[in-house]
């Protein structure tokens, strides 16, 4: 899929991108400074727990950007992006498990603890290579990317669209969840992968490593945002919007709609995989619950609240909803699903374009400083 050479530089000329990156990097610097240089007994001190929590929010923000790319600009309502997120997380989790070595409960230098517990004799073939960081990081991209490539090729070639495509994507993530729950799959079953020790030689339990992961997640979010903005502002992005608004007419004009859809879908899946890979070392566990169809639906709510086809709106929605979830589940954990459903209904009725749409409406309503007033125009 051809794109212009300066497609990656074009977003930096946009005021919205400049503001987004400025706010993001300012937040990274402020949080880091409050964590490193403020005394722990101060009200301004940011604890390691808060740093990790914010890092998790940024992972979700990157995931929301990936979903907004295909839903907002391509018109594909994917209810299966949780699967791509989880696959990236499992790829990272497998690497972290191999780094434990003989420090596990059973002291086996090769087999993870859950395999020893299940009386496995040898390491499965698909675990080989995950003791090398470069291989694991490559699989973070390839595992969700290849799944999206195969699934997207079959779906888009068959011209499956609309609600039918959404149902199929949800069925995909549900099937993967059931598969990963099985112990014989070799991914830890119901308990998943956990008890990680270090990453790239750095102890995951130290404050410095947690802060480093938080900063790395923020940088990944910045790169992911710029890549998506570069795509949507290029010719490829304009064709994507045309596919969203009038697929039959776009096809009639000679564009290979399936190729456009497949390319954007694969890029989105790989970004979701990166988000999952950054999520796992910060929360310390990855299990089949990340494949839950409910989680994929929740991602859509983030994007809907923030505003489709804006990218920065997806970031806003992801952070706000997950912050509300953190607070709400601490007060009334059983009522969170009802609150989430009510939030989705309210957004659909009163904020069809999300928070970003509300901000854009207010900005358009404000007169520019260079625009003459009525009296000046008649003078």
Automatic annotation (TrEMBL):
One of its GO terms (molecular function) is branched-chain amino acid transmembrane transporter activity. The keyword Cell membrane applies. The keyword Cell membrane applies. Keywords: Cell membrane, Membrane, Transmembrane, Transmembrane helix. It is a multi-pass membrane protein. It is found in: Cell inner membrane. GO terms for cellular component: plasma membrane. InterPro entries: ABC_transp_permease, ABC_transptr_urea_perm_UrtC, LivM-like. Pfam families: BPD_transp_2. The chain crosses the membrane at residues 20-38, 45-67, 73-97, 133-156, 163-181, 211-228, 260-279, 299-323, 335-355. PANTHER family: HIGH-AFFINITY BRANCHED-CHAIN AMINO ACID TRANSPORT SYSTEM PERMEASE, SLR1201 PROTEIN. This is Amino acid/amide ABC transporter membrane protein 2, HAAT family.
